[in-house]
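Hi everyone, sorry if this is the wrong subforum. Our group has a chain we'd like a structural model of before ordering constructs, and none of us has done structure prediction before. Sequence below.
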Amino acid sequence: LPNPRQWQPHDDDWKLPENWEETVLEGMRDRLKKYRSFRLFMDICVRCGACADKCHFFLGSGDPKNMPVLRAELLRSVYRKNFTLAGKIFGKLAGARDLTEDVLKEWFYYFYQCTECRRCSVFCPYGIDMCELTMIGRELLNLVGCNINWIMEPVSNCYRTGNHIGVPPDAFKATIEAAAEEVEEITGIKIEAPINKKG
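Answer:
Right subforum, don't worry. Here is the predicted structure as tokens:
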């Protein structure tokens, strides 16, 4: 996975790779080309705030940046600066801002406070899916190695053992066989668990 290193979110230096800005912006460019919905969600929000009081993170924390509309604005501001004419010409007047380390840190803090429940999108009059924006934000963070353990550990386990909980194949087989024996004891019906058998 990208940029493996020891780091903590509370560190001042996140040990980002040298070309991290280019990596993130290229990742955003790729996703704008690949997902029409992403480009649409970047452009159509009118900031009505219909989503604000629907988010349990905003209600629980009172932090305005936990409103789905402002969480999306964290991405939109960088999008405007780098991918819109108005943002390139008028900068802050158009709601655009540069991608800096502080902005990236903000992305990390707020995109991982969203549980992607999609409640906000149910109430959005334009149908903006904040969950999709959160996923893209997390993907962009991952490109420079900014991720969290409850995502990294299952992925690492999949690479290592073939399953997300890290159970070695022989232990998995033994567990399934034990469950089949228990079913037979309880029901009297003998079942076979076809592990690694075609069909």
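For your construct planning: The chain is about 55% helix and 0% strand. The chain has a mean pLDDT of 93.
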